[in-house]
Write a structure and sequence with these properties.
Elements lengths: L1 H37 L8 E8 L2 E3 L4 E8 L5 E8 L2 E6 L7 E3 L6 E2 L8 E5 L7 E9 L6 E11 L7 E4 L9 E7 L8 E6 L2 E3 L4 E5 L5 E10 L19 E10 L3 E10 L15 H33 L13
Parallel strand pairs: 2-10
Antiparallel strand pairs: 1-3, 3-8, 4-5, 4-9, 5-6, 7-8, 9-10, 11-12, 12-16, 13-14, 13-17, 15-16, 17-18
Protein name: Ig-like domain-containing protein
Organism: Aedes aegypti
Length: 329
């Protein structure tokens, strides 16, 4: 019994000593965490790293500027590096000479004269540069913290004009079949086309695309619709009045938020012969006209009177004829 009692007492004594050590360790860890919480590590950390492209959509053969915006706080700058995908093509290290360095990359022509610690300028961009770009900013000692910003660059070629809209006729009436097509000039990415008739969108399933030799895309859509009398009712004309009997067909081309142009045709019923207008005179014009008429009538009466007087004078001046001789037997 005694050995067992001694063994149990020792076990409790060990548990008491072990619990006391564990408690001291937990208190030490808590104090350390509190110290770490009160320490401002952000004083040497990089904050707010953003990469922007100017312009947001770069036109082919134009220049692109990638701006890396960052906040180092109180830390000095160690390096700024720009990447296309996972491959570096430009770096800025203030501790080296020269500070700016362009790393060869197919399709990327860096303008070192316009590049610095916060931006890189790429000249004559091509379609192959559409994709992911990033900038990596590293602070100098003692933390050497690093942060990265990302962006998708889009290289585009916008149409040089609006869409072209065509119809078989310029005038339509209820019962006719309206056939039309609309096409957009070459672009990249392709333009999306939409047809509306009197501001009502028309579903057009037939849409075709064609790629040109310089990798641009043209888009075309076709329309065939049987016109009803309801298509002509209550149309507002451009002058603001009621335009019953008129159709307005519009084709709109859009490329995201970068481009939007439209073309439209005003169609209506066949033209009728014009009705001659009634002309009336008022005011001074009417007085002049009345005076002219009166003078004309007076002149005509004088001419008639003159002719009658001439006839009488001629009759009075005729010689008298001798009387015929009578022979008596």
């Amino acid at each position: 019994m005694w050995p067992q009692t001694t063994s149990i007492g020792g076990w409790f004594n060990n548990m008491r000593i072990g619990g006391s050590c564990l408690l001291r360790r937990l208190i030490s860890v808590g104090i350390l965490l509190q110290i770490l919480a009160n320490f401002d590590f952000s004083a040497g950390a990089i904050r707010n790293v953003h990469l922007v492209v100017d312009p947001p959509a770069v036109r082919r053969s134009h220049h692109a500027t990638l701006r890396c915006l960052y906040d180092l706080g109180d830390s000095p700058l160690y390096s700024v590096k720009f990447y296309r995908g996972l491959r570096e093509f430009y770096r800025y290290l203030p501790s080296e000479y020269p500070e700016k360095k362009a790393i060869p990359f197919p399709g990327i022509n860096v303008d070192l004269s316009l590049s610095n610690a916060s931006q890189v300028v790429i000249r004559n961009v091509g379609f192959g540069l559409s994709g992911n770009f990033s900038c990596e900013v590293t602070a100098d000692a003692p933390l050497y913290s690093t942060a990265t910003g990302h962006i998708q660059m889009q290289v585009v070629e916008l149409p040089d004009s609006g869409p072209t809209l065509w119809t078989e006729s310029n005038r339509y009436e209820a019962g006719d079949v309206l056939r039309a097509n609309c096409s957009s000039p070459p672009s990249r990415p392709k333009a999306d086309l939409k047809l509306t008739l009197n501001n009502i969108v028309i579903f057009t399933p037939d849409q075709t695309t064609r790629t040109t030799t310089d990798s641009l895309v043209t888009t075309a859509i076709s329309l065939r619709i049987h016109l009803q009398s309801s298509h002509f009712a209550g149309v507002q004309m451009g002058g603001g009045g009621s335009g019953s009997g008129t159709l307005v067909l519009r084709c709109t081309a859009t490329i995201g938020t970068l481009y939007e142009r439209y073309s439209e045709l005003e169609l209506g019923v066949p033209q009728r012969d014009p009705v001659p207008a009634r002309v009336t005179l008022t005011g001074a014009a009417a007085s002049i006209c009345n005076s002219s008429t009166t003078l004309l009538m007076v002149g005509f009466a004088l001419v008639l009177l003159s002719l009658m007087t001439s006839d009488r004078l001629a009759a009075s001046t005729l010689p008298s004829l001798p009387s015929p001789l009578v022979h008596r037997r």
